[in-house]
């Protein structure tokens, strides 16, 4: 019975995709390339954000978000095709080139004008990455500094609001951290978990500070979908199932902790 329902749902979704409801012809193309007969969800990411997304050894996007969206799609009877692109291009590509995006993307008022978000799946906060031994500790210490951020991120918005800050934007967060190590920027503002990954990667060279110390607000990651997408309920149902049956926690354990 359950299987039949899943098949019917998949068939319905497939028709919706092919009819251009949830997406445009890019999805239809991708759908026709499917190896089995499952429809394909074309999902954008920016694989420069470990542990949520990075380029794996096989050259393909990997990480928590990639595993999560595959699990969500699987519950919906769909396969996934990941598209790796610049973070700043994701939102505008949703509904045209992409059926959805998963990219450690925080729900923001601004993005909500252009896309819908699924239920949140992860709480985050911006962290500050500084050179080892730095005495940056309080909000006022950020003023007038040269700050590295990834272009178009919430870290970019936060940095841009700091008094006298000279904000340097990068397409890749790693390049911002490299410039921190080389002394070209004073600090980097980036989400907690990637900050922790970079702290390990540049062990002894950089330190990280919890953004709560600078009064940065919590942020919530969610899957972005086209405005008005009918898929949202199915995505949320799949997320809820994955949380209830322990799959979600297993992915957290595998990729994040
Ligand atoms: N959470 C931040 C935001 O939504 C940064 C996300 C960056 N993600 C990425 N895959 N590069 O703006």
Structure description:
With 257 residues, the protein is an alpha/beta fold. It folds into 2 domains: 121 residues, Periplasmic binding protein-like II (D-Maltodextrin-Binding Protein, domain 2), CATH 3.40.190.10; 89 residues, Periplasmic binding protein-like II (D-Maltodextrin-Binding Protein, domain 2, 3-Layer(aba) Sandwich), CATH 3.40.190.10. The chain is built from 10 helices and 15 strands. The two termini are 37 Å apart. The longest helix has 17 residues. Helix content is 38%, strand content 23%. Helix 3 crosses helix 9 and helix 3 packs antiparallel against helix 10. Helix 6 links the parallel strand 10 and strand 11. The radius of gyration is 19 Å and the shape is globular. The chain has a 5-stranded mixed sheet, with helices on both faces. It has a 3-stranded parallel sheet with strand order 5-1-6, with helices on both faces.
Task: Spell out the key features of this protein.
alpha/beta; D-Maltodextrin-Binding Protein, domain 2; 257 residues; 15 strands; 5-stranded mixed sheet; 3-stranded parallel sheet; 10 helices; 2 domains; globular; binds arginine
SSE order, one letter for each helix or strand: HHEEEEHEHEHEEEEHEHEHEEEHH
Alpha-carbon Rg, integer: 19 Å
Strand order, sheet with most strands: 11-10-12-9-13
**Domain unit count:** 2
* CATH H-level homologous superfamily name of the largest domain: Periplasmic binding protein-like II
Helix coverage percent of residues? 25-40%
From the coordinates shown, what is the CATH architecture of the largest domain?
3-Layer(aba) Sandwich
Principal-axes shape call: globular
Strand content: 15-25%
Output mean pLDDT. 90
What's the total helix number?
10
Q: So what's the CATH class of the largest domain?
A: Alpha Beta
Bound ligands: arginine
Residue runs with pLDDT of under 50 for 5 or more positions: 1-33
Query: What is the strand tally?
Result: 15
Alpha-carbon distance between the two ends: 37 Å
CATH topology of the largest domain: D-Maltodextrin-Binding Protein, domain 2
Strand count, sense and barrel status of the largest sheet are: 5 strands, mixed
Structural class: alpha/beta
């Amino acid at each position: 019975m359950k299987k039949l329902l899943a098949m019917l749902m998949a068939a319905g979704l497939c028709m919706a995709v092919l009819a251009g409801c949830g997406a445009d012809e890019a999805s239809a193309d991708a759908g026709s390339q499917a190896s089995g007969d499952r429809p394909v969800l074309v999902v954008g990411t920016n694989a420069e954000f470990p542990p949520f997304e990075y380029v794996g050894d096989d050259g393909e996007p990997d990480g928590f978000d990639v595993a999560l969206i595959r699990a969500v799609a699987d519950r919906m009877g769909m396969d996934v095709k990941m598209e790796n692109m610049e973070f700043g291009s994701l939102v505008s590509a949703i509904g045209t080139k992409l059926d959805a995006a998963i990219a450690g993307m925080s729900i923001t008022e601004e993005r909500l004008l252009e896309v819908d978000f699924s239920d949140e799946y992860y709480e985050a906060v911006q962290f500050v990455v500084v050179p080892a031994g730095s005495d940056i500790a309080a909000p006022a210490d950020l003023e007038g500094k040269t700050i590295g951020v990834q272009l178009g991120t919430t870290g970019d918005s936060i940095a841009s609001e700091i008094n006298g800050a000279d904000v340097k934007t990068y397409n890749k967060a790693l390049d911002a951290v490299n410039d921190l190590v080389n002394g070209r920027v004073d600090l980097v503002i980036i989400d907690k978990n990637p900050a922790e990954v970079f702290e390990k990667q540049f062990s002894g060279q950089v330190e990280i500070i919890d953004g709560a110390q600078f009064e940065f607000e919590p942020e919530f990651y969610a899957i972005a979908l086209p405005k008005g997408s009918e898929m949202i309920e199915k995505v949320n149902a799949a997320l809820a199932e994955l949380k209830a049956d322990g799959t979600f926690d297993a992915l957290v354990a595998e990729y994040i902790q």
